[in-house]
Design a protein that fits this description.
The protein has 326 residues and is mostly helical.
Length: 326
């Protein structure tokens, strides 16, 4: 099953590299490894030079960034759903993404050009407040903890709205477009930020697969089986916050990927985290790469925010989950 997922993400990535305002043929895509050598060795056609520029400087970093963002959000959703034992938990609904967006917008309003650390601080601040308000009830009243996160996320969004109204009208559209999630205009610097975080996140979550399986049985059972439940919950929420905030810093707010990916992966592999973690990462990458392709091609001549695409499908998925609950 994971092989099919790998083939799916590779096929989606190849299609994303080919399709766009500048169409690139499959033969040019296969020639990518030789493009640099051809440019160095002698004169080449303008078409080949354009293909090299589009592939290496625009589309390849965009595909890698989209895949890494999907992995980060999917892993965050898997962690939160396991910790809260709630199938509706995910970084966007818990307010972690909204906290990261608030930190980034505050930095931009102050004139900063780099928003990585402010976004990370914002996401961790929301996670810290959630844990602080519920520190005595984290194991006993997980639904209340989730609701606190939702409320803080709404508060962060309200502050973000107030702040962006102070931006120059000329910059307001680009800020709003970024807040809704977009991979447009991103380059290799964002890729080097997000891809290592995604790889490290996969390793850490895979190491935690057995404690996550035990926590799914219930906090008391996991505690008697040797799991330090409080530490796992705190660390898992913090890791989900870091992954969500880094994603916000690189490409804005993209919702519902963390909700959909774990559910779809469990449909394919079953509930045990040892199998569902790699599948969740792959499904998350497929969702964001596919959403980016749809955002660039659904409306001719217009690029939609990726967050709008995932929001449409995510809301429908969310309602379907609610309808199936007893």
């Amino acid at each position: 099953m994971n092989t099919a997922l790998r083939l799916g993400i590779l096929g989606g990535a190849a299609l994303t590299l080919l399709v766009g305002a500048v169409c690139i043929g499959p033969t040019q895509l296969l020639d990518v490894p030789r493009l640099v050598d051809l440019l160095r060795s002698g004169p080449v056609t303008p078409e080949l030079q354009r293909a090299q520029l589009v592939l290496w400087e625009l589309r390849l970093p965009r595909v890698l960034l989209a895949a890494a963002a999907g992995v980060n959000l999917a892993l965050g959703g898997l962690l939160l759903q396991a910790i809260f034992r709630n199938p509706l938990a995910e970084p966007y609904l818990l307010g972690l993404s909204s906290g990261g967006a608030l930190g980034a917008v505050l930095a931009l309003a102050a004139g900063a050009t780099a928003v990585t650390w402010p976004a990370l601080t914002g996401g961790l601040l929301i996670a810290g407040i959630v844990l602080l308000l519920c520190r005595r009830r984290i194991a006993a009243d997980l639904p209340s903890l989730l609701l606190v996160g939702v409320a803080l996320g709404a508060l962060a969004q309200a502050f973000t709205t107030v702040i962006i109204l102070r931006f120059d009208p000329g910059a307001l559209r680009s800020i709003l477009f970024w807040l809704m999630g977009s991979f447009a205009g991103r380059g290799w610097s964002e890729v080097w930020l997000l891809v290592p975080a995604a790889l490290l996140g996969i390793v850490i979550v895979c190491v935690l697969h057995r404690p996550l399986d035990l926590v799914a049985l219930g906090g008391e059972s996991a505690h008697h089986l040797g799991v330090r439940v409080g530490l796992l919950q705190t660390g898992g929420i913090a890791l989900a916050a870091v992954l969500a905030a880094l994603t916000v810093a690189a490409c804005g707010t993209i919702g519902f990927v963390g909700l959909m990916a774990p559910h779809l992966a469990r449909r394919l592999t079953g509930a045990p985290h040892g199998m569902s973690i790699p599948a969740t990462a792959l499904v998350g990458a497929m969702l964001t790469v596919g959403a980016d392709l749809a955002a660039r091609t659904v409306l001719a001549g217009t690029e939609l925010p990726v967050g709008a695409v995932t929001g449409v499908f995510g809301c429908l998925f969310f309602l379907a989950l609610l309808a199936k609950r007893p």
